[in-house]
Design brief:
This protein is of the alpha+beta class. It contains four helices and 14 strands. Strand 2 and strand 3 form a beta hairpin. The chain is globular. The two termini are 31 Å apart.
């Protein structure tokens, strides 16, 4: 992986951040990786807090003509939710120091061990605002992500997502590449990923109850 050129206006909101690794290029910045965005102690504290304060949900979905358990736990929040946990607000601020995007939502994935995974995929375009990237903040133990081009010869790279690191994927890359985390028999500890996105719509709470908002968060993603 070679070092990325500085990308003002997309990757740096608070000044130059040397160390970006360029995984794939496109006109919107491609896919890039930056280790050490969050200090180890802070990353560990956030991981431990999220394990405790987030109402993690298990999901089921249709696959191969049968219902299967999604192999990880999930949660999601709008960033303007009055009940947004402080740890998510702080994590979003950390990501915005290196990625200049008006993020409106965060999706969380909890990989409990090597049996948890996410199949190769691109994010759903109708749930993203064109032109804005997706930024993944990793906490907990490292896991290896594979990123593969859709078109032949289907070049691919693998990157170990370290705690405190940020992976940034352009909107366009969701149509040209797939990313995923495979199951592994190697001993790995739990990991939490925070995917910051710019969603097409933001809710207007208008005094709705916390329970109603919780139901909305659980629907989808």
């Amino acid at each position: 992986m070679d070092a990325a050129l500085h990308q003002p206006g997309l990757f740096d909101a608070g000044g130059p951040s040397p160390g970006w690794q360029r995984l794939f290029d496109d006109a919107e910045g491609g896919v890039r990786y930056l280790a050490g965005v969050v200090a180890p102690g802070q990353a560990r504290d956030w991981f431990e807090t999220l394990q405790q304060v987030i109402e993690w949900k298990s999901q089921r979905r249709m696959m191969y003509e049968r219902m299967v358990e999604v192999p990880r736990l999930v949660a999601s929040w709008w960033l303007d939710d009055p009940d947004l946990p402080a740890v998510l607000r702080e994590a979003g601020q950390a990501v915005r120091t290196v990625v200049d995007a008006p993020f409106t939502a965060v999706g969380l994935n909890f990989y409990r061990d090597g049996n948890d995974s996410v199949a190769p995929h691109g994010d759903k375009l109708h749930m993203l605002v064109p032109g804005h990237p997706v930024a993944l903040l990793s906490l907990g133990h490292p896991r290896r992500m594979a990123i593969r081009a859709n078109d032949p010869p289907r070049h691919s790279v693998q990157v170990d997502l370290e705690p405190g690191s940020v992976l940034v994927m352009s909107h366009r890359s969701q149509t040209t590449h797939q990313h995923g985390i495979a199951k592994t028999r190697s001993p790995v500890g739990p990991r939490i990923s925070l995917a910051f996105r710019v969603r097409p719509e933001r809710p207007q709470w208008n005094g709705r109850s916390r329970h109603a908002r919780a139901c909305e968060r659980g629907a989808g993603r």
